[in-house]
Amino acid sequence: MSLVYTEITLKNAGDVAIAESGMAADHSIRQTTVRALVDTDAWTLVINEATREKLGLRIFKTTTGKLADGNKAEYSLAGPVEVVWKNRSTNCDALILPEADEILLGAIPLEAMDLMIHPRTEEIVGVHGDQIIHSVK
């Protein structure tokens, strides 16, 4: 299987909550649209420090992580982040790899949005089709 990329929008979930409560305008939500490598071996969303700063995410903990090359190190967790793919979204924490070249979309946000890599077309699709999922507001 080749590398699979998809476009996602990342939003500061705290900003989203404040805007939804009417205490701030929608345009004040810090967000960015990125091309992410879909990595089912990564457990969550992985972003670099520049993306964390752009979204204004708070670092709330450090954890030990093991990279694909086997290296273990301490990494920061930040969030919450709202991950949006087409008409689907979920909130998750982001693992910060300070100098990462790519955003990684890991297994937990994929599962939460009911997404998978289609084995024949090698693209992201809804597990149960691409039907519209309605969110509760």
Instruction: Give the low-confidence spans.
Output: none
Number of strands: 9
Could you state the CATH homologous superfamily?
A: Acid Proteases
Radius of gyration computed on alpha carbons: 15 Å
- Helical fraction equals 10-25%
Q: Averaging pLDDT over every residue, what do you get?
A: 91
Instruction: Enter the CATH topology name.
Output: Cathepsin D, subunit A, domain 1
**Assigned CATH architecture:** Beta Barrel
Structural category is alpha+beta
Secondary-structure element order, N to C:
EHEEHEEEEHEE
CATH class: Mainly Beta
Treating each run of at least 4 consecutive H or I residues as one helix, how many helices?
A: 3
**Percent range for β-strand residues:** 35-45%
Q: Roughly how many Å apart are the termini?
A: 38 Å
Largest sheet: 7 strands, mixed
Q: Your description of this structure?
A:
This protein is of the alpha+beta class and 137 residues long. 15% of the residues lie in helices and 44% in strands. The chain has one domain: Beta Barrel (Cathepsin D, subunit A, domain 1). The protein contains 3 helices and 9 strands. The strands form 2 sheets. Strands 1, 2, 3, 4, 5, 6 and 7 form a 7-stranded mixed β-sheet that branches. Strands 8-9 form a two-stranded antiparallel sheet. 27% of the residues are buried. The mean pLDDT is 91.
